[in-house]
């Protein structure tokens, strides 16, 4: 299983094209060969693709805005941009809360639209992947929104986020098993408690059972683990990425 840097970690350092280029180069210098593109500031897609190629980075996944995915003309552009990046998976960071309320009916509408988008993207030879938070684990009519997504949109991949699964009251191991064959990229994010408050943590510094998680990811064919830490860095996002990477290298990832 490969290690990727989720560039959302460094979003405050990647707001301008110049900063984006510097962040890409710094990430490569840290030893990362694979990245997820998410949270970057505005940048010409051709320029971004050229930097990625020149620096020698593999893009495993992105997070695209819902507004672009639901606009037919923009979706064509998004697909073209991913081909330039040689990125096989278009991701969505979360259900757009301003469009679909967190209700059974809201999820029904979102699921219907997600099916359409998944088919459009798969018809172009790419995959569509949904990234969870904790709110997908709320139940209506005896079933969580997460399980509805899994069952009702079977062609959609899931970018499982270990922290948010646990925050939702579920077990990451259960969902890695349940999603065998549907996780190409998983978000490795550790979970710790400080003064009775949940916090993000560098991989290995929190309470998740990483030996079991890594073993199960390997046995179920997960291609890549993207290190994501939204906040709570010990020093800064880059230092935290480096700490997490060293921990995962010690566990046999590459």
Architecture blueprint of SSEs:
Layout (H helix, E strand, L loop, with lengths): L1 E5 L10 H13 L4 E4 L7 H11 L2 E5 L3 H4 L2 H14 L3 E4 L11 H20 L3 E5 L7 E2 L2 E2 H8 L4 E3 L2 H6 L4 H7 L6 E4 L1 E5 L2 E5 L8 H10 L4 E4 L9 H13 L5
Parallel strand pairs: 1-2, 1-12, 2-3, 4-5, 5-8, 9-12
Antiparallel strand pairs: 6-7, 10-11
Helix pairs in contact: 1-2, 5-6, 8-9
Q: What characteristics describe this protein?
A:
254 residues
Tell me which CATH architecture applies here. Alpha-Beta Barrel
What order do the strands of the largest sheet run in, or round the barrel if closed? 3-2-1-12-9
Report the portion of residues in β strands: 15-25%
Shape: globular
CATH topology label: TIM Barrel
Report the average pLDDT across residues: 98
Specify the CATH homologous superfamily: Divalent-metal-dependent TIM barrel enzymes
Regions with little confidence, pLDDT below 50 for 5+ residues? none
Description:
With 254 residues, this protein is an alpha/beta fold. The chain has a single domain (2-249), classed as TIM Barrel. It has helices at 17-29, 45-55, 66-69, 72-85, 104-123, 145-152, 162-167, 172-178, 210-219, 237-249; strands spanning 2-6, 34-37, 58-62, 89-92, 127-131, 139-140, 143-144, 157-159, 185-188, 190-194, 197-201, 224-227. The strands form four sheets. The chain has a five-stranded parallel sheet with strand order 3-2-1-12-9, with helices on one face. The protein has a three-stranded parallel sheet with strand order 4-5-8. Helix 5 (104-123) packs parallel to helix 6. The protein starts with a strand and ends in a 5-residue tail after the last helix. The mean pLDDT is 98.
